[in-house]
Amino acid sequence: MKNLKINIEKNIGYLKTDVKNRKINRTVEINDDIIVDLNVDGQIVGVELLNPAAQLGIKFKKNFVYPVNFIDKLALQVKDK
Which of 10, 64, 67, 81 is 20 to 30 A removed from 4 (C-alpha atoms)? Predict the structure, then answer.
């Protein structure tokens, strides 16, 4: 994963992957809080997180780490759709 950007004021986040073809072909809504963008090959281009502070357990500090198991779980859910 390349980077995670979070807008604290709007409480939304976007996690970009390091996939070379970032052109979005389709979007899959996993649930009310997670939307996944896929390229033409079905690879995850990015993940939009609604309410990321609660989903990732982020405390409003300068530094944080997102849980890797969250990304693995998400990838399995996308493949099932």
Answer: 81
